[in-house]
Automatic annotation (TrEMBL):
Organism whose genome encodes this protein: Adineta steineri
Entry superkingdom: Eukaryota
Pfam families: FG-GAP_3 (PF13517)
Protein name: VCBS repeat-containing protein
Keyword Signal: yes
Length: 165
């Protein structure tokens, strides 16, 4: 798995053809060697060091991994968090769920029909997984936003097998 960042240059419509003048420096690719059945990745700064970190859903081994970014555009060895036996995590998302200004991780656990929540402490560590059942639905996708303007994050899932959200 190789993680990259895509930047899109948008310009307002003009009579002439717009020209994007972004300049990029070439760096040697440093892919993260990965052997845990990655299914999904999300990016955030979990340890508040201003470098992007990644969280990866490990579908084949019922866990998520958090790898911390370094200043030289590499990542350290991942820290593994269990999502439970047979959970088969399908997607990860990050958001500050409890309004403590620290990023939390949300996992769609396809195999156990639940959403796993790992609350972040801001130092790169997370609480044990808290589970929220999705009933008979198998979550495969997650989105997080404040849908009803109550200043609290709402979690929306797309569910396989029940054609439901």
């Amino acid at each position: 798995m190789i993680i990259g960042i895509l930047v899109v240059c948008l310009t307002s419509p003009k009579q002439s053809v717009p020209k994007c003048e972004l300049k990029f420096n070439k760096i040697d690719p440093s892919p993260i060697e990965y052997k845990y059945g990655p299914r999904s990745v999300a990016i955030g700064d979990f340890n508040n060091d201003s470098w992007f970190d990644v969280v990866i859903a490990n579908n084949a081994v019922d866990s998520i991994s958090v790898a911390f970014g370094n200043s030289n555009i590499t990542f350290g060895s991942p820290t593994i968090y269990s999502t439970g036996t047979g959970s088969a995590p399908y997607m990860v998302a990050v958001h500050d769920l409890d309004n403590d200004y620290q990023l939390d991780i949300v996992v769609a656990n396809f195999g156990t029909n639940n959403i796993g929540i790992f609350l972040g402490f801001g130092n790169g560590s997370f609480s044990d997984q808290r589970e929220v059942s999705t009933g008979a639905s198998r979550p495969i996708s997650i989105s997080i936003s404040d849908l009803n303007n109550d200043t609290l994050a709402d979690i929306v899932t797309v569910n396989y097998g029940t054609q439901s959200i």
